[in-house]
Every structure is written in C-alpha cells, then in structure tokens.
Amino acid sequence: MSNNKLQAAILVVSETASRDHSTDRCIPVLRDVFDGIGNGQWEVAFTEIVPDSVLDIQKSIQSWADCQKPLNLIVTSGGTGFATKDVTPEAVSPLLDRHAPGLVHGMLASSYSVTPFALMARPVAGVRKKTLVLTLPGSPKGAKENLESVLKLLPHACIQAAGAESRPLHAGGVKKLEADAGVSSGGMGEVPGGEHSHHHSHPRHDHSHGHGGHSAPRAHTKQEDRPQSNDPSAGPARRYRSSPYPMLAVIDALNLISENTPEPVVQKVPVDLDLSGAVLAKDVKAAESVPAFRASIVDGYAVKMPHSGRFAGGVYPVALVSHAQPGTVKELKEGEVARITTGAPLPPGADAVVMVEDTVLKRQTEDGEEEKEVEILTGKIQAGENVREVGSDVNEGDTILKKGEGITVVGGEFGLLASVGTSEVSVYRRPVIGVLSTGDEIIPHDKRGPLRLGEVRDTNRPTLLTAVRSHIFEAVDLGIVSDKPGALEQTLRDAFRKVDVIITSGGVSMGELDLLKPTIERSLGGTIHFGRVNMKPGKPTTFATVPLKDDSGKRITKSIFSLPGNPASAVVCFHVFVLPSLHQQAGIRPVGLPKVKVVLDEDVRMDRQRPEYHRAFVAAKDDGLLYASSTGGQRSSRIGSFKRANALLVMPARDGSMKKGERVDALLMGKLGELAR
Ligand code: AMP
Ligand code: MG
C-alpha cells in the first residue's frame, strides 16, 4: 500500500457509459460514499468503465487483484440484473477463491427494506487472492445504498483477506470490532451511517409499521467468533476440552445439508440395465406406437367383413397363416379366413379375429400338416373384435414418462421405455460415493488370526458400502487411513478425483487424534457446516463441503460426511443424514427414508436429553397395522443392534419409556417384515 489507506477500485459495467463516459453517474456517487462514511480509511485508487462483457470485466478485476500490489477492494456497479446482457455475476464468480455470502445477504437485506424488487438483483461477493470483490447494482441510488450498508464492515475483512493475522485483530472481541467499525450489534440494517444515518433516505421504509428490525437477517455470532477446528500441531494439552461446535437439532442439520448439497447434474445415458434408480431430468416422448401394427390378441382366425357389415358363420377356406414373427403377410379376401396366433399382425384386409374356441376344424391338407377349412360357429363377430389397434397402448408422440419420475427397480419404467424403442434418456447423474474408515487401531475385517491389543476390526466400511449400494449408488472402497494428518489429507484429495461424496467414519470426537475437522478446514479449505447434532447415537456427526475444480477447470463443491466411529452411530447417521443428500443430488424426491407410524409392540426406553434413533424390527400384523419391536441393546458401539433391524424408531427426548401400544414415527430402512400368524 502506498499510504496507510485501504485501496479501492470502482468498475462500472455499462454499455452506454462505456461508449460515453460522461453519462456515468455511479463513480462520483460511490466516491462520495467512500469519502463520506469511510472514516478516512479509503482511497479510490482506480476507476474504470467497461461494457457488459465477461472478458472485459474479468480483465479489469484481474489487473487489480492479481498484481504485485493488489487492491483491497473492488466494487463493480451494473450488470447484476436478469436481462440477458447482465453478466457481471458470471464474470466475477469464477474469479472468486472464496465466497462471502454474508455480504450478499447484507446488501440484499438493506435494499429489500427499500423495495422488494431488490431481490431481482444477483449480487456476488468474495475474495480473489487478497482482494475483496463486491458487485453493486447499476443504478447510482442502489449502488450507493448497497455500498453504504456494508462499507463499515469491510476494512476488517480486507485486512484479513490481505493476509493479516486474525488473532491480534480479534483481541478485544466483537464489541471492540463493532466499536472500531462504528457499527452496533443491531444487524446490518443499522450500519449505514451508524447513529447518524439521517442523510440516508429510504423512501418506502415506514418505521411506523413496527418493522424496525426487519431490514436485516441477524446472526447471533459473527464468523470470526465461530469455532475453528483444533490445531492438530498444538498437541493434546492445547486441544479443545469441549466441542466448540454448536449442537444443532436434527432438522436444522438436515436443512444445512440440503442447502449445501450440490445441484443435480443432467446427463444423457443409454437405456440399459444401469438405468435402475435413475431419475429423469426431461420428459420422454414415445418415438413409436405400441403396437406398431394391428395385432391379434387371441389365437384364432382373422376374417374380413363382407360389405353388408354382418359376418355369417359357416365353413371358410384357411387361405393364409400369420404367425407372431416379422415378415410380410398376404392380403385376405372376402370369403377366406387366415389362421393367426396371439400378437401376430392382421393380414391386410382383415377386420376382426374369431377365437379358436369359436371354430371347429373341417378339413386338413393331405399330409395332415395344415388346416384347409374351418367352420366358424358364430355369426356375431364385430369389426375390430380381438384386435389391438396401432397405438392403442402407446401413441407415437405421447409423453410416457415425466421429468422427476424415477426408473424403479420394479422394472415397469424400463419396460415402458423399451417398448417404444427409446435408446437414450436425460437423467440426473447419480453421485459416486467413497467410503473411508479412519483410525490407527482399525484393521481390515478379514485379517486372519487373533487381534493384537487395541486392534479393532473395520466394521463401518463394509456396513456403509453395503448400505450405499443397497440404494443403487456406486460405492468406492477408500480403505482405512491412519490418524496422521498428512495421510488423511492426501487420501481425501485423491478420493475427490474419483468420487463426488466422501463418507468417513471415526476421528470426529474430541480425542487429540481426531483429525477430520482440522484437515477439512485447514488443509482442504473446506467449510464445516455443523460438527455436533442433538441426537443419540451420532452426536459428533460432521458435514462439510470442500471447494474443488472439475476436469474442465470449473469450480465445484463436493461434500464430506464425517460420521462417528462407533458402528451403530455411523450406520444411523448414514440413513438420517447422508442418504437425503445423495437423493437430492440424484434428483430423487422425496429424499431420505420413508417415514411411517408404527405401534410399539413393547415398552421402549427413551433418552432424557437427546432424541434417539432406536433400531427396531417393523412388521405388519393381520389387523393391517405396523408393529415395532426393539432389536435390543442400543449402545452406539453395538452393531448387533442392526441385525434384523429394518427401521429406526424416532424416539423423543423424554424421561421413562414409551409404552406398548403407543404410536411412534419410524424410518423404514429395509423391507417390511411379516409376523408369524
Ligand atoms: P473415534 O470417533 O475415531 O474416536 O471412534 C470412536 C470409536 O469407534 C472407537 O472405539 C473406535 O475404535 C471405533 N471405531 C472407529 N472406526 C471404526 C470402524 N471402522 N469399525 C469399528 N469400530 C470403529
Ligand atoms: Mg479414531
């Protein structure tokens, strides 16, 4: 920095202003904001005006952020709307190494308090290398209001982004930060101008409606105050002694998973046996009719109606034979009949088929091989009788399957696609899942011979691989990794080249060897969305996303579910947390296990503090109701509680037991049982 001020640039994105700089009004307005409420901390070092062009926008930003002396802040103005020419977010997003959705929320919330149309903007914010980038609206008024709403918070972020140590910055806590920035904890709605915001006019902001606090979402903790994982190099004496992660309710954890699960990806695939389990991303129209020809639905004799329209019974020569096989069939003349089999094409000229049961053989050929004449015993036959008309099952052009519908393992949908010759469909790509066990004590389950003291056979990997595959997802065995930081990081990095989702087990509790959270946060630059859930078993369940690039260099995120090491916990958490996310990524709806009400067949104890997922066997009885019985000891280490279990009873947190006969929710994991009668 040339002086002590923070260096900013204003980039106006406007077709008109880029042609005639004199028409721009944003730069002077934004300069005023920096000078006015910037506490003398800012210097606007550069301004530039470019047209709505991704390349031009990116060139400017990169010239300011990727150089030797990067700027602290770049604000753009314009091009964030929904018009097709608006490309600023598309230009900026790929340049950001780290997104700052909080700033986006803050800006939107502040303009939303002026007009709901504020939501019609698509701002992005984040850090490129050492530079914070914000996209403001194109109107001078909107740009001004947006910048005002966040500017006071930015010095802190910019200093951190530029690489300052955060510890000294945070000495004194949030209160000091707020005092330094001249803001209060009332949410960002109060930020513009602090207490002196009279000059900041919000024409439609009517305080008399009691919406005083409505303008901004309010978080109760600030990002910098939120926990970071243990620093593994600090050693056991310096580790956290209680989990620094807030304890979330299961529903909140599920919401976070849903919000952070990558969007389903659409792909074209051939119609083959691998299609089972897929969900269609586009409607499918029939390219052909079924049947494709007029076909007989019985074995019998095709007949031609006389002009009178009334077919008379009597003896007829068998002039032709039509089998259910490809080929041409000769024309049937009036006064003749054709022997025909079920599914065979009607000869041209034929109008109806008489069932073989309504006929008797009159004469056969000399060699006794073929029929020469038959007697038709009925005169009541109608045109079209026993004939399946072209397209009577499916008409060419009909929509046979809709977007969002699944190809089930029952087979009906595949059958339908097959029947009309569909060779390719668009489906949501099913994520590939890697399963990894962690722990120095874990050995392959099939290791021969007695265990050494401390060794534990890997129970989680085989169980989780089975569970994943049972839901028709491809599961990749990632093996066992030791509790050494480098090993875990390398294994996760390698795994993400092959898989979309990683499930790990172990290493998420409080022990000093619990490396998952620090490795995800510190080594992989991931975000831990939660690290503790109020449930039993499964309290330390952790969900994180990691930023990565795909083969084409596009920025993507992938998820890691770090499940507890205890086998029963790991399996419960797979069903409760991982499966819904896999479903969402594969376009399957509704997500997760089906939930049903069951009647308890015995008393079941509850946990006083945490809702419990109790392993149970659910079966139908003669009365048509579903009954549940416990599979026994529910200790989280006891995988045996999963033997025979086909359901998880969702037991509320309460003292005592739920009684036999009471109803409770159950998540169905497997096929319903049937109780002996
Ligand atoms: P951790 O979360 O790593 O502290 O593990 C908690 C408990 O689960 C410990 O007793 C581990 O030995 C056990 N455990 C962890 N991973 C596995 C596994 N893959 N199979 C069986 N037990 C495990
Ligand atoms: Mg461990």
Q: Care to describe what's here?
A:
It is a single chain. This protein is of the alpha/beta class and 677 residues long. The chain has five domains: 6-222, MoaB/Mog-like domain (Molybdenum Cofactor Biosythetic Enzyme, Chain A); 250-261 and 431-585, MoaB/Mog-like domain (Molybdenum Cofactor Biosythetic Enzyme, Chain A), CATH 3.40.980; 266-289 and 393-428, Molybdopterin biosynthesis moea protein, domain 2; 295-388, Molybdopterin biosynthesis moeA protein, domain 3 (Beta Complex); 595-676, Beta Barrel (Beta-clip). It is built from 15 helices and 34 strands. The strands form nine sheets. The protein has a six-stranded mixed beta sheet with strand order 2-1-3-6-5-4, sandwiched between helices. It has a six-stranded mixed beta sheet with strand order 13-10-12-11-15-14, with no helix packed on it. The protein has a six-stranded mixed beta sheet with strand order 22-19-23-26-25-24, with helices on both faces. Helix 10 (250-260) packs across helix 15 (567-585) and helix 12 (460-470) packs parallel to helix 15 (567-585). Residues 186-217 have low confidence and may be disordered. Bound molecules: adenosine monophosphate and magnesium ion.
